Amino acid sequence: xxxxxxxxxxxxxxxxxWLSFMAITYALSFTLFQAxxxxxxxxxxxxxxxxxxxxxxxVWVYGLYLLTKIWLYKILLKTP
Amino acid sequence: MFAAEHIVMFLTSxxxxxxxxxxxxxxxxxxGLIGVDVHKDSKPRIPKTGGLxxxxxxxxxxxxYILLQNFSxxxxxxxxxxxxxxxxxxxxxxxxxxxxxxxxxxLLVAGVPILLLQVYYPRPILPFIGTTRLTKIYPILxxxxxxxxxxxxxxxxxxxxxxxxxxxxxxxxxxxxxxxxSNEFALTVSLCMIxxxxxxxxxxxxxxxxxxxNSGSLLIGAVMATTAIVGRxxxxxxxxxxxxxxxxxxxxxxxxxxxxxxxxxSRPVTVDxxxxxxxxxxxxxxxxxxxxxxRVHVREDKVVIALAILSFYSALLAVLTHIFFLx
Lengths: 80, 327
Hints:
The structure holds 2 protein chains of 2 kinds.
Chain A: H1 3-30, H2 32-37, H3 43-76
Helix pairs in contact in A: 1-3
Chain B: H1 4-31, E1 34-36, E2 45-47, H2 50-68, H3 73-95, H4 102-107, H5 112-116, E3 125-126, E4 130-131, H6 138-155, H7 162-181, H8 184-204, H9 213-230, H10 234-240, H11 242-254, E5 269-272, E6 275-278, H12 288-292, H13 300-325
Helix pairs in contact in B: 1-2, 1-8, 2-3, 2-8, 2-9, 3-9, 6-9, 6-11, 7-8, 7-13, 8-9, 9-10, 10-13
């Protein structure tokens, strides 16, 4: 591995983080944000939206960490 | 969209920083406000008075803008928020690191001026959707953004010039976007900060003659957060800060909570005469510098350039997001 290859690998990782961030923002705007901002919403639907929104967000953050871990140990630090 | 007052403000912030930095370097040696450059064999002692001069450069630049243009609550909120974050960092520079669990809580204070002066608009513009209404959750997000951004900027202040290069990338993205969208506040702040940081870079780049210190990095973080909130550029700011945020997030996950990496047994990188290289210890925290130096030995200045490339790439993504998904 050279420094250039490491930079390229990280650029790919940042690109993935960017695309997934856009998708997650879209998902949250229809789940968590909607449930918090609309008081007149049906209680069951509101709770369901909060649960789905929080789950999606937590899975995204932890998934990004796991992906970075894989990136570091299985790609960048892997001995040929 | 550049007016005469913008150019005068840019020149004021640039030359104030350029002129006063050598004086603050001497002040650092005289007062003993110094840190050790751990990535050099000789372990030189470097003044960490950069935060003072960054604040001075920003204050002079924005004061000139107020004199030529007009006073605004937005700029007042920015100055007070930046000063609060700077003060917390300065206490750290003087007395050593604040408890990592207490520090994020203390940085919440930096967001209070934004709420008290009501210079925020709880209608962020999200990709694909457009303007949303977040009146209840937005004030909480305003407060939360300060510890997140300040710590993220602080977390990348690890190599000579790294905080300066990466911050210039962020403000360049904000400058381009504010020019495209005629955003006066964001244009003013980003131009002022580019002036300050470009002059500061001449002293802070490898081999550093001065460090920004915690006061400098927390101040820059507070300015970034305020620009994003007041300038209504929340989403593009997050994207431009992706390397910072990922770095901070991975450190927190690796250390399993808010702990200081400095006192962690296994360091993320090793330093020898051949340069910096990533630690192979699976217990070491995952950081951007560790990832960049995986299986290579590189000189410090080259790692900083790699970090700068990554930050400018994120800045480009932020501009592309603004053009294609937020208009």
